[in-house]
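Hello support,

Our group uses your service weekly, and this is the first time we've seen a run hang past the timeout. The protein is SHOCT domain-containing protein. I'm not sure whether the cause is the sequence or the server load. Input pasted verbatim:
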Amino acid sequence: MELTDWASDHLLATVGITLGFLTLTAVSVLGIAGWLLAAVLGLGGTGALGSLLPLFVVGLVVGVPVSVVGVVAVAVGLAARASSAVSGTTEIAGIRLGRVASYVERENEYARMVGLADLVENFDTRSAEQRADDRTERLKERYVEGEISEHEFEQRMQTVLDEEGVQREGVSTIDDELRAAERN
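Update from on-call engineer: The timeout came from a worker crash unrelated to the input. Re-ran successfully.
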């Protein structure tokens, strides 16, 4: 079991261990700072703090790296918990967000310049083929309803297939489907 898996499964223990090592680090820093301050100002008690100085140094050498690892483990554990809690809704939201981004990009020049659909693509968990199917279906509907010309349809279809990285073999079946739809 990896540290991140353990941290996610035992989040409360990870937080407790991390807080313990953060406390060790803080006490070690304060002990070393107190000894230095007492030595510089010539105050008494440098002998007592001086005898604890090796422990403070060991605490600092051990506490800092373990604290850093602990903070990272807590962050990863919290992120894993949060992502598992929303994973079901994220897939649906990603699909909707991808569709909206594709529409906005088609209709808005600035969104195309920014590459909005590419930015949102990470949220869309569908495969390239599924995204291409969805986009081509919308193009077919617009063509059949007369919103776009045949030439514009073919250009946009090619763009969709290129953007999604889908093989061009599907174009002939799409053309056949369109011809059948036009006849009906």
